[in-house]
Amino acid sequence: MDNPAGVEFAPEAYVDVTPVWETKRRMLLCHESQDAWLRAIYGDDASITDLMTDNARARGLAAGCRYAEAFREVKTYPRTGSFALLPGFRA
Known about the structure:
Layout: E1 13-16, H1 21-29, H2 32-42, H3 48-63, E2 68-71, E3 89-90
Antiparallel strand pairs: 1-2, 1-3
């Protein structure tokens, strides 16, 4: 799965998360200590949901939708699955 800021991550697959975006945003805000830490480091204007939104919009642009999450295959043997197992999978 992608890292929070998408730094040095080369996606191989995307999942359109647009239909569940508001639920994801509300769920992330439940991690109050992480949001508080981010605001303490970067200032009160920073929000953990802002970071998630910016990354999901960029991945959505690449995937052809509004919001997306990005994934890469973990190169292991034996293989553990297929991108087709991801809901809303987009190549």
